[in-house]
Amino acid sequence: MFLKYCFLIYSYLIKIASLSKCHEAEQKNYHITTQFIITLTLIEINIDVKKSLGEINTNCFCNYLDSSYLIDNIYINSQSNSVLLDNSFYFDNFTYYPQDNYFGNENINIYFTKLNKIDLNSSEIFTFFIDKYSYRYVRVNLYDSIFNGKSCFFSVNNGIFNRLDELTFSYTVKFFKQTCPFIFQNTNLQYLKIYGQSYSFIKHNILGFIDFNQQSIGSKILNLELSFYKAYLSKEILNKLVFENVEKIFINGLVDSLESDLFENFHKVELINFHIENLQYFLSKNNRWLASLNKNNYNNTKIVYIRFDILPVESDYSFPDSDLCFFKDFPHDNFVYPLFKEDIFFLNCSCTLLWLLKNTYLLRNNLKTIDYLTTYITLDTSEPCVSRDEFNKSLEHCKFDMRFKLCESNNFSVKKIKSMLEYVYDFKIILYFIIFVSPILGIIALVSNTFNLIVILNIWHKDEDFRMNRAIFINSIFNILYVFIFLFHMINECVTRQGNFCSSINRSVYSQYFKIYIFFFNGNILKLLSSLSSVSISVNRFILLDNNDKSFFYKIFVKKGHRVTQIFCVFLLGYFMCYFLQIYFTNWVNRSTLVLDELVSYADFPDTSLFVVSYIYDRMGVKKKYSVFVFSLFVINYVINDLIIFLILCSIEGLILLRARNLLRSKIKMMGSSTTSKLKLEKTIDKTTKVILINILFTIMFKAIDFAISTYLVSKRMHNRFSDQNLCYMYNSICSVLTEVNELAFLMSISFNFLIYYNINSNFRKLINKWLNERKLKFLINIKVFCSK
């Protein structure tokens, strides 16, 4: 027993000695998260590095872990833009021992962020996880990094990514068209996934490789997945040296076109899978590449499968007879066989499908299962489209020779069905435009409202109508504060990563808090107060025009103005509290910065999609019955801040217009038969009407845009999250852009209010004219003095 205690004490001292190798200053760079799953204890480690991956000290985390724990996720976050992926990445004394309960879970995922470049002098930097620590699969993911070699040369060393199970590049990785292909020299890699390639107005980010005149670089990448966002797929991307041994190619997203002989040099390809938007339109414009499939299949033994996935937006597409010409040159003789989901055969067994499946029974004995969706092709009982006995008769009935002759004379055109991804792209262009014009409008709004303050301060004591001046003064202050917040919120804007514009700090926690509590909460309050002060200006205009101390507006806003103000302040205080609750429950700081594809995963910062009634419960733990209350706060905010104020403003401006015309017409009746005076007064009526209509245009037009968008968003957000009609849940980036359009419309409405006040306030106008005349006179005097010299 004594020896046992001595051994425990000795072990403890050894552990303490090991821990002493990790300095206290280093320890803050390591964060460990533990997760218990039945019989497993999974460990997640976050590591911050400053200049080099060699800074990682395993003593800072390994000695805190039991040897039976499984480290399955390691996040390595670069704190600078100078960290290279090289041989300095090595985990010494990495505690891990295989356990019986690990079977099937011996995987490790490594996530790198902000890597600068790849060092081609390094070799097999991840294999120690397999050889030394007995992991079966190692998966590496790159985010916010630069993918290119520090230099470009070929060597006999194994590649830096050799023996990985999976290598993934996020859409946030910066690619280059002239990338060194030797990054993948002598590399065995099961899966390579590349997201976010685009060549469009908002983003130029394409991974291409330098075309060296070399026989081979020893690259053995078996599975390749490419996701595009409007791009042209060429040989620069599918480089023959890098992908010489690829067996399966998966093409996803929005693809504009393919190079005609793209697949000619890929002799080992077994499957090409198209999972793209607008497949029918794509095939109508791009079908010459079909002839390059399996073109050099000299021994006529290998079958190449090509699969067309039908996306939900084209769920009713079933390769109709009208599309037969797209597949006229389908390479049946090259042993190319098409694959479909089996349910398509029940929709419509068209001549186009029969043509594509022409060699089904000829190749039946050589066909093999590619995945679980295509098991039907190897079954003897499988009879795609029509029964085996009727198959040849159906082929003859289609009369393909006659149909193909018509292809040359007929001009087939396919109407492009705009997919949601294309709408997302359009809205990103709108967002880019908003970001471009916002600073310009912001400066105009600041100048306009600052000038309003200067003028009002000069006429405050001279003008008898102090109530209107006070309302203009307060309105201008609210507008200036809002403009400052609006301009600062540009730190939250991002069109797309590695695109035309993206704030470098929009994902930081502090910038997200700024958007939630400063821009959304305080900004919306300032918008409300600005709108209310605009209503006050309109009411005061009507009271002055009406000149009736017995009218409703005079009694409420003049005689009982103090009492009304007190009641209104109490109401506003209650509204602000309710609105704060709505902001708190419907917006959340998004800490999930590691997103592979922005077109698939939610990638907005902060997360603003929590407003959906049934969704709040899932994301925040709010009970469902309370989530209805939270959503009602959202609707109440819309009713007060948009609907009621908009209707009141429109009504008052309409009353002002009617009252002004009635007053002027009553003066005409009182003037008797003086034709000249009547004509002058009628011209005055027309001029006054035009001025008021222009004021209404500036005051209401942009607020009408604000109101229309808010109404649309509320209508969409009221649908269940499982419904395709809930646009803001399915594609929240669209709703986010619409919200920005809303804010821009309000900014435009307050950018030119100086012109409105110039027209509606005579003393305001007189002072401006006086200043202009003084400036003009001073300018003329200076010119005269200059000329006299």
From TrEMBL:
The keyword Lipid metabolism does not apply. Keywords: Membrane, Signal, Transmembrane, Transmembrane helix. The chain crosses the membrane at residues 429-460, 472-491, 516-543, 564-585, 628-658, 691-714, 744-760. Coiled coil: none annotated. Residues 1-22 form the signal peptide. The keyword Transmembrane helix applies. It comes from the Eukaryota. This is G-protein coupled receptors family 1 profile domain-containing protein. It comes from Brachionus calyciflorus.
